[in-house]
Design brief:
- By secondary structure, the protein is an alpha+beta fold.
- It has three domains: about 10-120, Orthogonal Bundle (Butyryl-Coa Dehydrogenase, subunit A, domain 1); about 125-235, Butyryl-CoA Dehydrogenase, subunit A, domain 2; about 245-380, Butyryl-CoA Dehydrogenase, subunit A, domain 3 (Up-down Bundle), CATH 1.20.140.10.
- Helix content is about 50%, strand content about 15%.
- The protein has helices at about 10-40, 45-55, 70-80, 85-105, 110-120, 235-240, 245-275, 285-315, 320-345, 355-365, 370-385, and strands at about 125-130, 145-150, 150-160, 170-175, 185-195, 200-205, 215-225, 275, 280.
- Strand 8 and strand 9 form a beta hairpin.
- The longest helix has 29 residues, at about 10-40.
- It is globular and about 80 Å long.
- Mean pLDDT is about 95; it is low at about 1-5.
């Protein structure tokens, strides 16, 4: 279900929002991107401005204090941010996947208690799904939730959890029945605040996507109340979290498209400035062929993202469309950043030029929110399902 309740976004509304995002990206994101990435510093001040812009409530319904952005507009916001620095979009996207799960699956009390605080940024969260030995295969998780008089006791280790260090809440996937067959029927999701029993083991060092707190998280006798069980019903956890992955994949696709667009812009600008053999390298046919391929992939990516987002907004099933967008746009991000590196030549290997960051960030989009190999399987299965003879 799309999150457009309570607000009919007009073209003028969209134009004003995107102009505001453009100014913010140019004035606050772009000036700090290289420094913060290279030093792997968390952008605390940027987070405060994200609160002011309402980005933590971007897709949360207005009745809970959010903007209620349709996915089609939200994706354009992400493309604009990622075209300059991909990493910050992860801070509010992981948070909004958690919020989406609460809005779709939570009890009325959970929605009332959590969503207004998430929309304002007072609560900044994420989703704790993956583990050291469980990524794509979430049914293999080992984190457990044992019932006791106070509610549930959570124990386990989570890996690659965004917003786990500097955020203050998470949606945690755990097993409430270790013997359930199939395994997903024994999995439940819990709303956890950061307090006793919640230990960040370490912040993970990464090739790219720096400045964001991707951490290993350990839950040691983490006590939560019965009210923390999302939806108030055990055994629904996997469906609850997977239900938000369509929007998550549209977001990753938008990030891939943004990386591709940003790399293209840098390459076009540099190709017109850099001269060899007495003329700008943009006049060399070999460079022109690269730019043409890059530009075509950028536009195709944006169209696929828009198509998936529109279908999501209409309430239709869009796992195939989201998978196509995520697969193609993320690969476009890798392709365009690599081609831009070649156009920049030797200077691309210097941190004085920002293209090397795009190159480092791009590959994550092919892995996150389900690998691109998994996306291809989803696409093929849905294609066959929709075209049965």
């Amino acid at each position: 279900m799309g999150s457009t309740a309570g607000k009919n976004w007009t073209e003028e509304d969209e134009k004003l929002l995107l102009e505001t995002i453009d100014k913010w990206v140019e004035n606050e994101v772009k000036p700090i991107a290289r420094e913060y990435d290279q030093e792997d510093k968390y952008p605390h001040e940027l987070v405060e401005s994200m609160k002011d812009l309402g980005l933590f409530g971007a897709t949360i319904s207005p009745e809970y204090g959010g903007m209620g952005l349709p996915a089609s507009v939200y994706a354009k916001v992400i493309i604009k941010v990622a075209s300059v620095w991909m990493a910050p979009s992860g801070i509010f996207n992981s948070h909004l996947i958690m919020a989406s799960a609460i809005e779709r699956c939570g009890t009325d009390e959970q929605k009332t208690n959590w969503l207004p605080k998430m929309a304002s940024g007072e609560f900044r969260g994420g989703i704790a799904l993956t583990e050291p030995n469980a990524g794509t295969d979430l049914q293999a998780i080992l984190t457990r939730a044992d019932r006791n008089e106070q509610g549930y006791l959570l124990n386990g280790t989570k890996m690659w959890i965004t917003n786990s260090m500097y955020g203050n809440c998470l949606l945690v996937l755990a097993k409430t029945d270790l013997n359930a067959k199939p395994a997903h029927k024994g999995m439940s999701a819990f709303l956890c605040q950061k307090n006793e029993g919640y230990e960040v083991s370490k912040k993970l060092k990464k090739l790219g996507y720096r400045s964001i707190d991707s951490c290993e998280l350990t839950l040691v006798d983490k006590q939560v109340s019965s009210d923390a069980l999302l939806g108030g019903e055990e055994g629904r956890g996997l469906q609850q979290v997977l239900g938000g992955l369509e929007l998550g994949r549209i977001n990753v696709a938008a990030r891939g498209a943004g990386i591709a667009e940003g790399a293209l812009k840098m390459a076009v600008d540099y190709a017109q400035e850099r001269e060899t053999f007495g003329q700008p390298i943009s006049q060399h046919q070999a460079v022109q062929l690269k730019l043409a391929k890059m530009a075509t992939r950028v536009e195709a990516s944006k169209l696929l993202v828009g198509s998936a987002a529109n279908k999501f907004d209409s309430g239709e099933r869009c796992d195939m469309e989201a998978g196509m967008a995520k697969y193609f746009a993320s690969e476009a991000g890798v392709f365009c950043s690599q081609e831009a590196m070649r156009i920049f030549g030797g200077y691309s290997y210097s941190t004085e030029y920002e293209i090397e960051r795009f190159y480092r960030d791009a590959m994550l989009m092919c892995i996150g929110e389900g690998t691109n190999e998994l996306q291809q399987l989803i696409i093929a299965k849905q294609l066959l399902e929709r075209n049965k003879g």
